[in-house]
Write a structure and sequence with these properties.
By secondary structure, this protein is of the alpha+beta class. The chain has helices at 26-41, 127-140, 151-170, and strands at 46-48, 58-61, 73-84, 87-93, 96-105, 108-114, 120-126. The termini are far apart. Bound molecules: nickel (II) ion.
């Protein structure tokens, strides 16, 4: 297993729609193990393959509280097949540092995909798990939380990044 580097906005791979996985081979399984380790090391509750530089439709999620037992799973080619209600929640993203925004999501979703063992799975999710799944599925479609906030807020974030970069260059 290996901890991988997490790509940060505005890396172009984060804007790309990821490719469907058509064969769950050793490479995909290794990717899932590495993504899981990377997610835990970064204290994240989810991670998409494109965030570690692999443009494929693979996500890992674990929304269990830190002091409780790990409850992780991976979904290959995840798809939302039904959704219901609305919920607002403050979201951050490992690829968009120092950005935390209140976003509207569906309160409940049913996600279908494949497990690492190649079995078709359906995950009924609500609350924080539903939010995490929608966030990660956004990633594999090339969508970031920055794409879901107002243009003004997006501009403010870009300016903040520019300033920080300048500070680093001057220092
Ligand atoms: Ni994210």
């Amino acid at each position: 297993m290996a901890v991988l580097e997490i790509l940060k906005y505005p890396h172009p791979l984060l804007k790309k729609r990821c490719e469907k996985v058509d064969r769950i081979d050793g490479e995909v399984k290794k990717l899932i193990r590495d993504m899981t380790e990377t997610m835990y090391q970064a204290n994240g509750i989810g991670l998409a393959a494109c965030q570690v530089g692999v443009s494929r439709r693979v996500i890992v999620v674990d929304v269990s509280p830190i002091d409780q037992e790990k409850d992780f799973f991976a979904i290959i080619n995840p798809e939302v097949i039904s959704e219901e209600g609305e919920i607002e929640h403050e979201e951050g993203c490992l690829s968009v540092p120092d950005c935390s925004e209140k976003l509207k999501r569906k309160e409940k979703v049913l996600v279908r995909g494949f497990s690492a063992a190649g079995k078709e799975i359906e995950i009924p999710a609500e609350g924080i798990l539903a939010i995490a799944l929608q966030h990660e599925i956004d990633h594999i479609n090339g969508v970031l939380i920055l794409d879901r906030i107002s243009r003004l807020k997006r501009e403010l974030y870009r300016n903040k990044l520019k300033k920080e970069r300048r500070k680093k260059e001057d220092g």
